[in-house]
Design goal:
five-stranded mixed sheet, two-stranded antiparallel sheet, 57% helix
């Protein structure tokens, strides 16, 4: 699909439909010559089909061509079906691991859909993510083998040790449908310098109701910090990552003092401000005034955000080289020592890959 630039009528309309925008403002953007095929493809690529369908169904059902509504409804029905299936798998997996004395936390996927959106059908996701303690990995791997879950990677012992030391997750095929299951012990690769203490996280987990079952998940404050780091690592190149922030803020009371304290400790405060700025700028979510003042006091945030929103729908956002990737990532850090640590770790990652991961860095 040939992507249009961020200022095209279709991209502006898509963002407006995802905002808490007045109906009149959106109506002005609904034109007879709207390229709906492009808009639907873009919504699919950015994984916001459920939110787009909900907004059109609720507010613009008579203003959108019937064939577009029908196509969205068909896609949403399929997404909901897949989400319920993956949620059932997640519930079963978490219960199985906990019965075998493994501390496990549901992460992203349906857990985030229920926690932030209040509805597992409103968030588009493709896999199952859980967080464990690294020390439990071999036990978890054996337990998964006992229920016929196969590792995605075929690694030697040496390669597996390298992954555990230098990576942050290990993927498996789960169940008869071979759903992708990603078992995490960290949230991002070490080179990104997001040194979040996952052991402390296990001491303050909360729970979310999934189909009547209480499942352990990440607190609102930790979720905000982790989601902002994930979005920043990937340059916020998908709208659904910005939607996650917006919906989390709309549905949950955030203890901002806690967020600032924890983010400052690990040097990720600018990434928090960046995620909040984008949620406000792109999707119109309200930010507390005192927090907004802090965001705008950091001039670097607006510069990065403007750059990222300008390429949000551009095809070149997918092809950053190492130098450009590093340049942007470094601008997202507020502390000089983290910039130096990032540069060193990124250099070492390249050396480590050539020595210990001859199969290539897992993607």
């Amino acid at each position: 699909m040939k992507l249009k630039n961020s200022k095209s009528p279709e991209n502006i309309l898509l963002a407006a439909l995802l905002r808490t925008t007045e109906k009149g403002k959106v109506s002005d953007l609904l034109k007879p010559d709207t390229d709906w095929k492009y808009l639907l493809q873009t919504a699919e690529e950015h994984r916001v089909v459920p939110l787009l369908f909900q907004r059109i169904k609720n507010d613009f059902i008579d203003a959108v061509p019937l064939e577009v509504v029908n196509e969205l409804q068909m896609r949403q029905t399929e997404i909901a079906k897949l989400n319920f299936g993956r949620t059932a798998q997640l519930i079963k997996l978490v219960d199985f691991l906990r019965k075998n004395d493994v501390a496990v936390v549901a992460y992203k996927g349906s857990a985030l859909a229920a926690f932030a959106y209040g509805d597992i059908t409103l968030r588009q996701f493709t896999d199952i993510d859980v967080l464990i303690r690294k020390k439990d990995f071999q036990k978890v791997k054996q337990l998964l083998a006992d229920i016929d879950c196969q590792p995605v990677w075929k690694l030697s012992d040496k390669q597996e040790k390298a992954v555990l030391k230098y990576y942050y997750e290990y993927p498996f095929f789960y169940g008869a449908t071979e759903t992708l299951l990603e078992v995490h012990w960290k949230f991002v690769e070490p080179f990104f310098v997001f040194d979040f203490n996952t052991d402390e996280l296990f001491d303050r987990i909360t729970s979310v109701n999934l189909c009547g079952k209480a499942v352990p998940t990440i607190s609102a404050e930790d979720s905000l910090i982790i989601l902002c780091s994930h979005g920043s690592k990937h340059f916020w190149k998908r709208l659904n990552w910005i939607c996650d922030i917006a919906w989390l803020l709309k549905r949950k009371d955030i203890n901002w003092e806690t967020v600032i304290q924890r983010a400052s400790k690990i040097g990720s405060l600018r990434m928090i401000w960046l995620g909040l700025y984008l949620a406000n700028d792109v999707l119109g979510v309200e930010i507390p005034e005192d927090i907004s003042l802090k965001i705008h006091a950091d001039s670097g945030v607006k510069t990065i955000a403007n750059y990222l929103t300008n390429i949000l729908f551009d095809e070149n956002r997918e092809i950053f080289g190492t130098v450009e990737m590093a340049r942007i990532h470094l601008k997202m850090r507020e502390r000089k020592r983290d910039k130096l640590k990032y540069s060193y770790r990124l250099f070492m990652t390249k050396a480590i890959d050539s020595l210990f991961m001859p199969m290539g860095r897992p993607q």
